[in-house]
């Protein structure tokens, strides 16, 4: 069985298609656009099958901003390329929103982690490195394997989650509400890590849509 990742050939969706839908955009059209945009952005530097189409998507990212394209991905299934890119984008946004706090959680999580926590995955990036990794993946410039990028992002999530859980334990002696918030966020990050790890496995198997 081939391990080459399979994906549908991207096709351009003209902006007018979205505008002409009665009662808003057709969810199927949005889903297709999310799929096509994700694959075009990730593969445009590696896949010369149809350079004109991928170049149009690249220009869209440059002119409209990666934020506009990311809006397409937010409702995509977790175990899809578009859904995985959305999760990486969300991690990037969280780091940029409060880099000092994220760095503190990372250090706390790293100190509290045992080797088994990150066994079998590449070295997780720091908060600063995570932003750079996300930028490269989202811009289609990541030169490594996408599955490795997903695994690294997942490892980052697990480290941050452990740091948040550690902080929650300290907060329980003070503000119960803050402790509950940190515990909830840690749980969400663990789920995100599991989703990214699943996408990494699917990418290696050639089944990530």
Give an account of the 3D structure.
By secondary structure, this protein is mostly helical. Helices cover 68% and strands 0% of the residues. The chain has 9 helices and no strands. It has helices at residues 15-19, 27-43, 51-64, 66-73, 81-97, 99-112, 127-138, 146-171, 176-205. Helix 5 (81-97) packs antiparallel against helix 7 (127-138), helix 6 packs across helix 8 and helix 7 (127-138) packs antiparallel against helix 8. It is elongated, with a radius of gyration of 18 Å. Mean pLDDT is 75; it is low at 1-23.
Fold blueprint:
Layout: H1 15-19, H2 27-43, H3 51-64, H4 66-73, H5 81-97, H6 99-112, H7 127-138, H8 146-171, H9 176-205
Helix pairs in contact: 2-3, 2-4, 3-4, 4-5, 5-6, 5-7, 6-8, 7-8, 8-9
Put the structure in a nutshell:
The protein has 209 residues and is mainly alpha-helical. The chain contains 9 helices and no strands.
Overall pLDDT score:
75
Number of strands: 0
Q: Which structural class fits the helix and strand makeup? A: mainly alpha
Biggest beta-sheet profile:
none
List low-confidence stretches: 1-23
Radius of gyration: 18 Å
Helix-strand sequence: HHHHHHHHH
- Total helices: the number is 9
Distance between the termini: 17 Å
Strand content: under 5%
Helix content: 55-70%
What gross morphology would you assign?
elongated
């Amino acid at each position: 069985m081939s391990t080459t990742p399979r994906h549908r050939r991207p096709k351009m969706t003209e902006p007018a298609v979205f505008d002409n839908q009665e009662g808003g955009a057709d969810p199927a059209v949005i889903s297709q656009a999310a799929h096509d945009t994700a694959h075009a952005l990730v593969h445009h530097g590696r896949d010369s099958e149809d350079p004109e189409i991928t170049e149009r998507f690249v220009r869209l990212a440059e002119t409209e901003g990666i934020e506009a394209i990311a809006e397409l991905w937010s409702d995509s299934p977790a175990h899809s390329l578009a859904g995985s890119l959305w999760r990486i984008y969300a991690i990037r946004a969280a780091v940029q929103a409060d880099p000092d706090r994220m760095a503190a959680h990372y250090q706390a999580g790293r100190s509290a982690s045992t080797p088994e926590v990150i066994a079998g995955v590449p070295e997780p990036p720091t908060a600063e490195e995570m932003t750079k990794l996300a930028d490269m993946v989202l811009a289609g410039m990541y030169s490594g394997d996408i599955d490795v990028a997903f695994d690294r992002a997942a490892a980052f999530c697990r480290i941050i989650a452990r740091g948040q859980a550690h902080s929650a334990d300290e907060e329980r002696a003070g503000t119960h509400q803050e402790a509950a918030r940190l515990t909830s966020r840690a749980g969400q990050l663990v789920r995100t890590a599991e989703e990214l790890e699943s996408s990494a496995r699917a990418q290696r198997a050639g089944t990530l849509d």
